[in-house]
# Entry
Amino acid sequence: MEPLFVDHLLQIADLFQKDMARAFAGSDLTPTRVHLLWVLQHAGPSTQQALATLCEVTPRNITALVDALEHSGHVRRTPHPSDRRAVLVELTPTAVETMAQMQKEHAQLNETLLNAIAPADRAAVERGLTAVAAHLENLVTDAATAQALAPAREPDGTP
# Structure
């Protein structure tokens, strides 16, 4: 039986997960911690509340993530310039170097993967992937909205 398109997408996702696990093996970084570092790299110094929203995690989870990254020397907490009750989380110089290296590796992987596609096909593949990603994002958003609006169900499936 020929694999479905979605099977190839799942295989790609699995391979990316395995590659990330390999890349972070022996370090204190995890995919979730790296995601927070990427968010900080793009958003700049942010409050933990803003980071929780951007990372789509609870405030409790963001506190644990920031604590771990602070302990490993990747982030630091600094006083908020206009709200004395808040603190800002920012990348340390070590993390800035780490993220620059990751960005370089990201660009190299991008080039390697694009080189696996015939030059004449690249634009079509990129348009197709963009369309699939946008459609999948809409499906996920619609499903989450429907789930949030659905009445709560008992464990046996009754309302």
Remarks:
- Strands lie at 75-79, 87-91.
- The chain has a mean pLDDT of 92.
